Amino acid sequence: MTLAEEYLKQLDGPSVTADERALGRCRQAADFIFKGQFEAAGEALGGLWRGVGERPETGHLEATTEAEVVLQCGTLTGWLGSARHIPGAQERAKDLLYQALETFRSQGVASKVSEAQYELGICYWRLGAFDEARLMMTEAMKPLTDADVELKAKILIRRTLVDVSENKYYEALDLLKEAEPLFGLAGDALKGRWHGQKGLIFRRLGTAERRAEFFDSAIMEYTAAIFHYEQAKHERYCGTNLNNLAFLLYKLGRYRDAHEQLDRAQLILTKLKDPGTLAQVDETRARVLLAEKKYREADRVMAGVIRTLEQGGEAALLADALTLRGLIWARLGSGEGSANILREAMRLARDAGASTQAGMAALTLVEEHGATWRLSASEAAEVYRCADELLKDTQDAEDIARLRACAAVVVERLAGMRLDDKNFSFYGAVHELEARLIEQALEKEAGSVSRAARRLGLKHQSLSHMLTARHKKLMHKRTPPERRRRSIIKKDC
Predict the structure, then answer these.
(1) 79 occurs within a structural domain
(2) Could you give the C-alpha distances from 298 to 63, 341, 365, in angstroms and in order?
(3) 188 in a domain, yes or no?
(4) Residue 450 sits in which domain range?
(5) pLDDT tens column, 245-277
(6) Do 55 and 73 form a contact (C-beta atoms < 8 A)?
(7) Exposure string (b/e) for 343-382, b if CB count within 10 Å is 16 or more?
(8) What is the DSSP annotation of 281-338?
């Protein structure tokens, strides 16, 4: 019998009150959640845990005890929902966490209000709502004192995740440096998180600024994180950092080493039955396969990743995966399918408030298809404008370079085809000019095909045929055609 099992057994003794029993189970569950052992956390909660998103039966517990049970059930719902990609889990987790937060606030338990806000911030981050996530975590820090060392450390690490997701790497690094004294007092588990997050930031900075010293620092930080997680026996987070290390090795062109680390991560996460994190490992493997020009194999891997991510509600991750698959399809020669996937990635990320992911999808769409007929000149310009707005706060030098390159593509398109263009064809140039003029006419005539035809000097039937046969992408510009009424006057036979 383990110490945890022995402790839980003692809680069932006749001298233990219902509140003491519930609080003891919550403490044990919180410890398991911190270790990434989510199934064990559910078992620790016992009858208090009714399943993902379900409100626990708390009976006649005191208000603060009831709030603690709801807090742990909400926290576990968020983590299990992410690991298993359960539809709607993050919204249900938020509902439970808000209930706990309001009770703690009414009872004046400030540190528990902060804990609930911190967990809510993580839910918002998973959903790609980065502004809300940042606000929650900022509010969570305000009432904490010097005694709340561990909670402060956890919040600061998660706060930097939001900055990294928005490519604000130096802000994230400054936060971690400011928090370094906190982690010097922490155990292996928190030290693992601190080193792992520093590794992520250094890797992103190395990619963005192409500085080898950042990559060296990232490798050292990931190695340290893996060591501390092994010491703490936090297998799930060990697997996550192995995936992060593999991604870095892929960026450095060390594809064989990357596959080796991915194999190690896959072994750990398969044992833990964690499809969510396994999907992230598979996505990294697909990137390696893409770099190795093994496009078919990369596409097969991504098909599984997307199936997994579609089951959950983490729009930012799904948008990233769709963007990668759109790139793979472009390499496979499926141009129209690639463009449609990238448009869907943009829409999904924007709807979720994940600006960076939407901007990355937009950049990829212009890079892969902006110079071709798959995007009209006006659509290419509009997609670029979206990317520029979505990524206006980025500090990533690579993103900025990509934006400039895409701007050049759009300028070329707006100038029209020229005889010395690499892909020039007479009929392609005619098709592009025809599309541009039709689009302008439809916009000026508010979508009326009849009036647009007159403006172009065409018959209604001719313009209608051109739209349905050669310019289907402009169909959304027209107003729906009205059915002509039949005359009630019969013609003489």
Answers:
(1) yes
(2) 52, 16, 19
(3) no
(4) 426-477
(5) 999 999 899 999 999 999 999 999 998 888 888
(6) yes
(7) bbbbebbbebbbbbbbbbbbbbbbbbbbbeebbbbbbbbe
(8) HHHHHHHHHHHTT-HHHHHHHHHHHHHHHHTS--HHHHHHHHHHHHHHHHHTT-HHHH
* Domains identified in the chain, total number: 2
Q: Is residue 80 part of a domain?
A: yes
- H-helix or E-strand containing 220? helix 212-232
Q: How far apart are CA 466 and CA 337, in angstroms?
A: 22
Tokens found for residue 226:
């893996």
pLDDT tens, position by position, 19-60: 898 999 999 999 888 888 888 899 999 889 999 999 998 878
Q: Could you give the dihedral angle defined by the CA atoms of residues 220, 225, 230 and 236, in that order, rounded to the nearest 10 degrees?
A: -130
Q: What residue type is 443 in one-letter code?
A: E
Residue 35 included in any domain:
yes
Give the ranges where 233-294 is alpha helix by DSSP (H).
235-251, 255-271, 275-291
CATH code, domain carrying 32: 1.25.40
Domain boundary among 144, 170, 203: 144
Going from the first residue of the chain to its last (493 residues), give the mean pLDDT of each consecutive group of 10, the final group possibly shorter. 59 78 90 86 90 88 94 94 85 95 94 93 90 92 83 85 88 86 79 90 86 92 93 89 93 94 94 86 96 96 92 83 96 93 94 89 93 81 90 80 89 68 63 75 84 82 80 77 53 46
Tokens of 231: 């010491």
Q: Which of 115, 144, 173 is the last residue of a domain?
A: 144
**Could you tell me the two tokens for 161?**
């995740």
Residues 101-138: tens digit of each pLDDT: 999 999 999 989 999 999 999 999 988 888 999 999 99
Of 26, 40, 1, 77, give the one whose Cα is nearest residue 233.
40
CB atoms within 10 A of CB 31: 15
